[in-house]
Amino acid sequence: MGLPLSAILLFAAPVAALLAAFFLVRPFKPGWTHWPILASCAVVTAASVDLAAKVYAGSVFDVPVCAWMAAGNWMVSFGVRLDGIGVAVLTMVCVVGSLIHVYAAGYMRSDPCFSRFFLSFHLFFLMMIGMLVSNNYVQFYLFWEGVGLSSYLLIGFWTHKPAARSAALQAFITNRVGDLGFLIAILMLLGFYGDTRFGLLFDAMGSQPAPLLPLIGLMLFVAAATKSAQFPLYFWLPDAMEGPTPVSALMHAATMVTAGIFLLARSWPLIAAVPQLPTLIAAVGGGTAIFAGLLACCQTDLKRILAYSTVSHLGLMALALGLGRVGVAVLHLLMHGFFKAVLFLCAGNIAHGIGKSTAHVAEVGGLRRSMPMTMACFVAAALSLAGIWPTAGFFSKDAVIEAGLEAGPVWAAMALTAAALGAFYIVRMLLLAFYGPGSGQKPGHAHEAPPQMGAPVLFLALGALSAGWLAPGIGRLLACGRMPSEEALALPHFSWTVFALGTAAAALGAVAAYVLTVGRPDFEWTWRREYPRAASLIETDLGWRKVVAAAAFVVRRLSDLVGDLLDHRCWDGLIESLPRATLPLGGAVSLTSGRLSDHLWWIVSGAALMLLAALI
User: Does 533 lie in the same domain as 452?
Assistant: First the structure.
């Protein structure tokens, strides 16, 4: 079965747009760089919807396109796999990512490096698409690294800001830990099976399990945990907020941070074959969800609140995965893409409205009158994040809670605690931004975003409200391809018990947020002054950032020591002594005196010996 035209357009449209924008538009009209890229987004979105319809109708594609790496009998092909999981995430990424592109065209219009931003932004988009449709681990790793490189360029886009440069470098270096684990896993799979195509590999594992399969599974989890910001390697993600708001929205809602969850979902037949590894994934995910949720409850920068929220929800996805509910994890990934994109873009609208790149809660109190549309969209996304019926987040959040209830009380408590914390921090953010008194906001200073920035947020808010009603269809779509098993991909049915528990957890968090913001409007500003040690502890992520800084210091000092011993004292001395030893050594082993007759004699002698060898 050959590839449909829509699959080819997934790559052809972005590549053509990038080439046209760079070579034809950028040199002459830099301000028009976004037009071919926006056209590419439209084509890719239409293609993803068409592919989702084809897969939903029963057509699953796993097609090798060409051989791009070969050595002897060993070969890695460039191929495309389109199954239920792949096209479900692909469609969300394309729809959400395209709307964020439209928003970015308005948000970044006055930036002097507008053309560079859009080229890097669309490259990021292309790398994520390529990763989602890869049919083997080597190709997946290629685009995985492309996503990491693109994120580095975008997080540090404002190179004049030292914080942005530092955050980009931190994200890049931290993700190298996971990338190394991923590379080790791929090399081990190649060494044992000689192939990394998902379909062939998982079939072969059933009859011939690899002897180091537990280590391979663990390395894949390390890769996923780093990219999807699970504890203890989560800290790079909140600091990545130094990039422009469209970057934060695309990275947190639809691309980079979901890559690790997608890797685990794609690799689930391998992960499930390793005893106790799913339990480890669930424990790390549940712990991350609660830890990051607690930190989100105390943040004061709008984008950092949402960043810790992303870490928390990624933990919920990992929790569902570890409990064997792959379909539930993917469903929450899809719903999270809509409501988190809205929240980040609303934060961008707020910052834009007050003339800053980001906003502190003390600067934005009382915006409900000056930014009514932004507030309406924020409320829709906040309800979805809190999991209130009938928004999109309700369907996926309740599915995670049900998975926890079926697995045991500890897992259920983790899911319910994370849900209550989520309702608390998002209602707190809503009240502080739109109802709170603030301390630096001047009446009438903020203004609503222009239509080019407002319209994408409105469309995404509609998705945050209604996408959950597509859950039955999404469940049937995920089952197409059946990798992982149909049981792992199944979505739960509605349960009044789960509904009551989830709603009660959300209500508890929302009421607590109301009491501490509206009921006690001075609480947010006074507790930090009265309890400076507690405030300092929050700033260091309950002390974990100090641990990370100490570990980085030790590694740096060790590398400096090794470098001094091996490089300066040993290697440099060896290199510097070579010129002094060359001339005496050359004289000692020389066979000639340098005269022309000697050279001719050796040439004739050598030629005679070669002739003799040929005749014999």
Answer: no
> Within a domain: residue 609?
no
- How many Cα atoms within 13 Å fall on the side-chain side of residue 280? 16
Q: Provide the token pair at 514.
A: 């109301």
Q: Is 541 helix (H, G, I), strand (E, B) or coil?
A: coil
Q: Kindly state whether residues 526 and 484 are assigned to the same domain.
A: no
Q: Are residues 446 and 535 in the same domain?
A: no
Q: Are 453 and 534 contained in the same domain? A: no
Give the C-alpha separation, 287 to 230, whole Å. 9
Identity of residue 155: I
The tokens for 56 are: 């939903």
Integer distance in angstroms from the first to the last C-alpha of the chain?
60
Q: Which DSSP helix (H) or strand (E) runs through 208?
A: none
Same domain, 394 and 527: no
Give 67's Cβ-side CA count (13 Å radius): 8
Q: Which residues of the chain have pLDDT under 70?
A: 1, 437-445, 582-599
User: Cα–Cα distance between 329 and 333 in angstroms, integer?
Assistant: 6
DSSP character string of 369-432: TT-HHHHHHHHHHHHHHHT-TTSHHHHHHHHHHHHHHHH-HHHHHHHHHHHHHHHHHHHHHHHH
Give 60-86 pLDDT, tens digit per residue.
999 988 887 777 777 778 899 999 999
Q: How many CB atoms lie within 10 A of CB 253?
A: 29
Which domain range does residue 401 map to?
5-521
Contact predicate 164/158, CB 8 Å: yes
Estimate the crossing angle of helix 137-155 against helix 162-193, to 10 degrees. Answer: 180
pLDDT at 443: 43
Residue 355, C-beta contacts closer than 8 angstroms, at least 6 positions apart: none
**Within a 10 A sphere around the Cβ of 190, how many other Cβ atoms?**
15
**What does the alpha-carbon distance between residue 258 and residue 213 come to, in Å, rounded to a whole number?**
24
Q: How far apart, in whole angstroms, are the C-alpha atoms of residue 168 and residue 159?
A: 10
Count of domains forming the chain = 2
Domain final residue pick, 521, 546, 575: 521
Rounded to the nearest angstrom, the gap between the alpha carbon of residue 354 and the centroid of all alpha carbons in its chain is 29
Is the same domain home to 530 and 482? no
Please, are residues 326 and 265 in contact by the beta-carbon 8 Å criterion?
yes
420 and 506 Cβ atoms separated by less than 8 Å: yes
Predicted confidence at residue 75, as pLDDT, reads: 74
Decide if 57 is inside a domain: yes
Helices then strands, each counted (H, E), the chain: 27, 2
Measured CA to CA in angstroms, residue 616 lies from 603, 607, 610, 611 at distances of 20, 14, 10, 9
The answer to whether residue 610 sits within a structural domain is no
Q: Are residues 180 and 275 in the same domain?
A: yes
pLDDT given for residue 94 in this prediction:
97
> Furthest-apart CA pair in the chain: how many Å?
105
What predicted TM-score, i.e. pTM, was given to this entire model? 0.91
Residues 529 and 466 placed together within one structural domain of the fold: no
- Domain limit, last residue, from 521, 544, 572: 521
572 located within any domain:
no
